[in-house]
Please model this.
Amino acid sequence: MNTPILDSIQLPHNLRDLPLEQLPQLASELRTFLLDSVGKTGGHFASNLGVIELTIALHYVYNTPIDHLVWDVGHQSYPHKILTGRKNRMSSIRQYGGLAGFPKRSESQYDDFGVGHSSTSIGAALGMAVADKLLGNDARSVAIIGDGAMTAGQAFEALNCAGDMDANLLVILNDNEMSISPNVGALPKYLASHVMRDMRGMLHEIKQHSNKVLDKLPAVKEIAEKAETKFKAIANEGSHIKQSLSLFENFGFDYTGAVNGHDVIQLVEILRELRNRKGAQLLHIITKKGHGYKLAENDPVKYHAIGKTPTPENISGSLKTENKPKPTYTQIFGQWLCDQAAADEKLVAITPAMREGSGLVEFEQQFPTRYFDVGIAEQHAITFAAGLACQGVKPVVAIYSTFLQRGYDQLLHDVALQNLPVLFAIDRAGIVGADGPTHAGAYDLSYLRCVPNMVIATPSDENECRLLLSTCYQLNQPSAVRYPRGSGCGAEVSGSLKTVELGKGVIRKQGEKIALVAFGSMVQPALRVAETLNATVADMRFVKPIDVDLIRQLAQPHDFIVCLEENAEMGGAGSAVLETMAQQGCLKPTLLCGIPDVVTEHGDSAKILDNLDLSAEKLLVKIQNWQKLN
Ligand SMILES: Cc1ncc(C[n+]2csc(CCOP(=O)(O)OP(=O)(O)O)c2C)c(N)n1
Ligand SMILES: CC(=O)[C@@H](O)[C@H](O)COP(=O)(O)O
Ligand SMILES: [Mg+2]
Model:
């Protein structure tokens, strides 16, 4: 690959030594490198192509790592990683032991803030700006946030705070009109107003060209500023922006834009100016997701993230032999949702900006009026569901386990305390693989168990998933069905909407001495372990209400109890089993096998589970060693 300028950059100070006119060539080389590298490893793709010019301009103008760059979500941080000493390790990105897919403080001093969830950048950069001021540090703080991430309440909480504080902060709004799917809501419409874009762009250019002259002529400058105000008022006329040309100015920010985010030279000039300005600044740039790679430009949804290029080495055994891939839990859910919606016209589905990932594409096509993408707004998604449920509509909130953390108070205060029948379809529960700890669904059983009125179901295979979704949907109270990323054991799935008895588990294998009390994804490994140990295996189906009779029935004839779950051991399903045995007076020596109190790693899920002693092989050894001690 011919990338001589890129190859000359070890760290950002090398970049800052380049003449300005070489930056477009650098952008082109960086794009070539990125296409090749992510093409091989897989990973987040289109967003990275869209910020190449911006990343170069930022490191060119800002004195990184003294100055702070805070990337929102962080899925667009690959060009930043390449320019900050990690180019040679890009081949390891998102793999076990390799570079993380998101900025990570322990990975590099250039990664100012660990991230993965959206809409934290403005708050974090503001915190840094205020801290630097308190400590007397000469440093600048920049938050880089996408238009999708900007739809979240947390971003607005930070804007609200920053606009009324005397902090030097630059927020760069990277507007590509896309979240993972097309961005939704009133904000994108506002940002997309051509009147606003054109007028603001013109104003910026006029101001740029005349500022030096005007500074020397205060009276003329005053007239020019009055003209600008008038100009804004005219821009308002005929546009659907009735109150103000710039929302952000009303929040106390100086607004610059909208400018072309792919013109690296112009970006440098603007950033140089903004770096020296005091107070809260907002730069609105327009970019194209997937810029420079036609396939991604034309289908940014598909190219938001891409898989690894298959090679003989990385095609797993199962992939080689199987003709038809197993359906994922997401697909099982998506199919159930359509079937249940056909049977009940009161069903509506809500997603906080995860239509594709949560399996709602088909549902949106079949039931467009009953489909709600509320933007990256998990808190709102849940309160909105509560409101719908108050009126007798039956909401299903399709949400990743990790993102449900954002809506915890809403789940408790708005849904559970009022005992409203909202069904949470919790995807990506447990270890998620390449995205790593920020996206691990490791905590939902612990944080849901203590919520009153809540029913929690943990399907052990694809058919169970459908059965438990139907069961929970029929309830007149809040409920959650949590299932893992990817596919299960490939169980045959019935097309019916049959239900099972609430709060009752089933014995899958009868053995002796040891009872394996398994939840969800751990039932299959438990069955494998049980072959060698001649143990009993219970598929508990529900964490809440837990099957007290079954636990008593298991505890009495067995000498040892082993609880298995893909959730934090602390406060999780195993804790529920222990509590029940203690309360029922049938406590037996018990081993909890779940996710220990550590930050999990990124990489292949099977490898991570093995490291956590949750593979069948490691479980067997762990149980046998523990038995020897008891
Ligand atoms: C709290 C939270 N909810 C959902 C997501 C999933 N997610 C990751 S990127 C993304 C879209 C972000 O859009 P934008 O900020 O505009 O960046 P772009 O992808 O357009 O570059 C979403 C919804 C997340 N990371 N965090
Ligand atoms: C950055 C982000 O949060 C999403 O793009 C996430 O990586 C999607 O994860 P899945 O691949 O599990 O849908
Ligand atoms: Mg976007």
